Amino acid sequence: MRLLVALPLVMMITQATAAEPPAAIQGNWTVDLSAKPEEPYLKPMVLQLEADGTVKGSFYESEILAGRWKTDRGRTCVSFRTTDGAGPYHTAACLVGDHMEGQTWAEHRNFLFNWNAKR
Question: What are the pLDDT digits (tens) for 73-87?
């Protein structure tokens, strides 16, 4: 009898956490990592959002090792980890209109970098 009561609850939780990834954030992006406007420094980002809330793809030519996405409070954001072999890079970004605004933190390199990306 307990199983019959618990099963609908589990189904509701599963349905609430699974969501169709928004097409607007999927795919290929060009990240502007320029420190000076006159010296462009562009790198690719590829985002593949899964219905279970995970993110796959690449950032700065490094594989996304762990990532999550969520739409809440009127915005869709991603957060993920990559590495350069020496340490982790933690990145978070949100879709703002037709572009993304993000930041990447590398504790082992002692920097936090704000960036923008466009299609």
Answer: 999 999 999 999 999
Q: Token pair for residue 79?
A: 């957060």
Closest CA to 49 of 13, 75, 72, 79: 79
33 Cβ contact partners less than 8 Å away, ≥ 6 residues apart: 41, 42, 43, 60, 113, 115
Pairing of strands 66-72, 75-83: antiparallel
25 token code pair: 């954030």
pTM of this prediction? 0.82
Residues of the chain with pLDDT under 70: 1-18
CB 11, CB 4: distance < 8 Å: no
Task: Domain 19-118: give its CATH code.
Answer: 2.40.128.120
Q: Which position has the token pair 């990145």? A: 91
H-helix or E-strand containing 97? Answer: none
CA distance 54 to 78: 9
Domain boundaries, the chain: 19-118
Residues in the chain: 119
